[in-house]
Each structure stands twice: as structure tokens, then as C-alpha cells.
Amino acid sequence: MPKATPARSRGRPAKLSRDQILSCALKLIERSPGQKITMTGVAKALNTAPMSLYTHVQHRDDLMDGIAERVMGRIDLQLNPQNPWQDRVRVWLQRCYEHLSAYPQVVSLLPQSDHIPPSWLRVHAPLILTLKDAGFTGQQLATASQWVGHQLIGALVMGFARKRSTNTQQEVSDLLSQLDSSQQSAFADILPYLTPDTELFAYTVEQVVLALEARLSQ
Fold this sequence. Notes:
By secondary structure, the protein is mainly α.
């Protein structure tokens, strides 16, 4: 008589890994760009207890650094050294802006004075080398590269804050009644030409290049 096949053991849940945790967190960001990422939220999405994450992720900063590494690692940082430095600065700014616009949670890490994601240094390096090629050195190089980075981050943060604004002219027009006549007249010349905040970055890029050229000519 054949032996009965023993019932299959349900076994333990699949073990977590750092890669699995980061992949889950990144999916949460891509699904809901405005949602704050927390250890509890990631654990819930993985159907596990928050404490189980700490075997692979030290704390939330470590989690966000891992996410930032993945996000920033997708930016194309290959800048053609044969192109003028001005064009390389433009390309760096445009590629960073277009890619990071989808990840406000990662961008929010950059202005923090007490913590800079290591991946940001790798993104920043091609800009420094480009400005060095342009002729910046020493303190000027350090200041210029930091300033360009700040223009990028500032534009991203403003873009997130004003993302739902699509008709700046109408917004301003609706508010003019709250101003006195002299203040209203100040807006008369510019009202027809006001641009949605989301479309201002091209102007920012050109002003950055002009400012760098002016600094080099001094």
C-alpha cells in the first residue's frame, strides 16, 4: 500500500531583503508622489511588521538614501565634453529637472542642512567638472556649483508647490480686487504675459547660464 503523501508545510513567510524594501518604497512614491514615505507605510505595503524592516534598513534616513540612490541613478549624466560648457550646464539642469520632478519625496531631502544623500554628490559631480572646464576654480568653483544646484532645487520645490496651478493670469486677475489702485496698476503691464510656474524653468536655465558667463568675465 503506497504511503500517504505528507501535507505540505505552509513554511515561514519569504524573507525580506533590502532590495525588496527599497523596491516597494519606490513603487509607493511612483504611485503617490505627494505621499510621505514612512517605515510603517512600507511595512504595511509589504504585509509585515515595521520592526522587521530594521534588519535591512537602519532608519528612515537610510531608507530614503536607498531610494534616492535608485532615483538619481536613473538620471543620464553623460555630458558630451565636445559641446560648449554652456550647453552642458543646460543639459545637466534639464535632465535633472525633468527626472526629479516625478519624485518630490527625494527632492525634499536635498535642502536639509543636516543630511545630504550621497547619491546627490554623484549627480553633482558632472556639473562641477563642467564648470571647471568653463574656467571656474577654487572658491569660485565651489560657490558657482552650489548656486546652480540651489537654482535647480528651488525650481523643483516651487514646481511641487504650484503643480496644480495652470492659469497664473486668471489667479492673479482674481486677486487684484484685494489691492489698492496703485498696486493694481503695477500688474497691468505684466498680467497678459504671466507664465504658469511649471513653464518657467527654461527661463531659469538661461538666466543661470548668463549669470555664470557674467561671473567668468569679471
